[in-house]
Structure prediction request, 209 residues.
Amino acid sequence: MKKTKKRNILLLVMVLLTLICGTIIYINSSLTPLPENKRNITATDIKMLMDFPDKANRTPIVRTYTKEEFDSFKVAKMDKLRRLTSGNIEGDIPALVLDDGIGVIRFSFERIDEQDIVSRGKIVTDEMPNIRIETLYSQEEPVVIDDILMASEEAGIYLYEVKSRLKQDKTYHHENDSFIMEGLFIKVQYSIDGKEYVSITAISTIEYK
Prediction:
């Protein structure tokens, strides 16, 4: 009887320790930036890369799927992806500084192997990639922009001019600087060798006044 009681107590202690450890791990992961090796993940053999200046050297959180898989996602899955690409904590995603209301992002696409090693050379898409931008937060209805990326002088590099969309009353103050800050959810759809892909990500834009 005593042995059974001791086993039950030991089992209870082990369960409690497991719950405590799990809670600590969950809280820690929720309060720290997403690790670099989890920021750009693809469910295909193609990765989308983005390049623009960020003062904190943060990289975007990108997820890539075939268009067929992406189109099968339910609303709950899309909401989860929006939260994921928006970062674990405030300031987890890169910020594009707008100059006179405009900032430029460079997009490129590369093929990876089974070991997640990126092959050399940028991929030229079958057609100009489509881009959809949605405001992540706004005092009014979210703004949605459908557009097309622009080709650059370098093969496989595509450009897009991001413009300020929020009204002037969405202004925040930091120290002595006044600036407009906007969160954007970005979806890029493109075709490579006849196969369609979708990459999603999120960034912030900052325009100093």
User: Anything to note?
Assistant: Residues 23-30, 167-173 have pLDDT under 50 and may be disordered.
